[in-house]
Amino acid sequence: MIQRFIELGEGYSDIYEWIELLKTNEHRFHRVCILTSVSNDVKKLSVALILKPVDESKFTPIYFCREGIEYSAVKTSKRIQLVEKTLQERKYSPHRLEVKHSSYFAEPALYHQYLIGLFRLHHILPPLS
Prior knowledge:
Layout: E1 2-7, H1 12-24, E2 29-39, E3 42-51, E4 59-70, H2 78-89, E5 95-98, H3 108-121
Parallel strand pairs: 1-4, 2-5
Antiparallel strand pairs: 2-3, 3-4
Helix pairs in contact: 1-2
């Protein structure tokens, strides 16, 4: 089983693309995660959409918008409101995890491996087979 991150951008339009991927791939939906990380005392949110493999394929894509949404307890970001509204409409519950910020890692591939390990630990991703 290959589990790989496909990074979208951090911008507003990337959230729309992420939401469209969710809507058009509902038959493959597995899980959604909202990740919180902190860097320089600023909380950032990431969203991950995990899809089931296609037919006989052993590839599990994880569509990811990394740390592009600032978290505020006072005012919720429009981007996270869009994500949460889309999930509520479909009666999906996101897994929420606090994770290390990607800046702790020398390269994105190491950060992705860290997240895959956490996802497996929390039974969000199935074990390798």
